[in-house]
Amino acid sequence: MADIACFTRNRCTTVEIVDDQTTRSTCRVQDTVMEAWVEILVKSPNLDIAGATGEIRRSSEGDRIDISGDLQKVIGARVGPGIKKIIRGLIGDRPFVESLSILLDECCNGVIMSYTRDILLSAPKDPAGERVFFSNMVRANPRLYNSCAALSENSPLMESLEPDKIDRSR
């Protein structure tokens, strides 16, 4: 029997309020090719990254890649607009860095979503009202589009959005 391509991925991001001024966000990924995790500590009220740790246990680039130096470079960066570009600028573009950048970005998105939780909970409970609420929220803040499964292009909440008409300059 011919080889059949097989790929699985499990990615999980968790956010924990450590104390009044510290939030911990951890992203773990395990798939056919890679197993890695990244954790950031973010200080309020400015949402500055105060610490970053992690490990790439296995990847297409090899096992046990030392990422500690790359993670130290993001300390001091502010979680908010442009963080994805800031992360890429700080850690560079070596082969495994794209995966590391995605994990860091997921951690930052988790922090942002945790601070917008109360707004999300205020959404109408009826399906039609919920769709309007979230579509308007993405129109007002285009960076939220595709930031999580609920706000992805295939989500029922985004049915009324026309992706090519989202003003991403904000």
Feature tags:
single chain, 170 residues, alpha+beta, 5-stranded antiparallel sheet, 5 strands, 27% strand
Explain how this protein is built.
With 170 residues, the protein is an alpha+beta fold. It folds into 2 domains: 9-114; 117-165, no CATH class. It has 5 helices and 5 strands; from the N terminus they run βββββααααα. It has a 5-stranded antiparallel β-sheet. Strand 4 (48-59) and strand 5 (62-65) form a beta hairpin. Helix 2 (83-91) packs antiparallel against helix 3.
Taking the alpha carbons of the first and last residues, their distance comes to 52 Å
Structural domain count: 2
Q: Order of strands in the sheet with the most strands?
A: 1-2-3-4-5
Give the averaged pLDDT, no decimals. 86
Q: What string, H for helix and E for strand, traces the elements in order?
A: EEEEEHHHHH
- Count, helices: 5
Q: Provide the β-strand percentage band.
A: 25-35%
What structural category arises from helix and sheet content?
alpha+beta
Number of strands: 5
Helix content: 25-40%
- What is Rg? 18 Å
Q: Give the low-confidence spans.
A: none
Shape category:
globular
**Biggest β-sheet description:** 5 strands, antiparallel
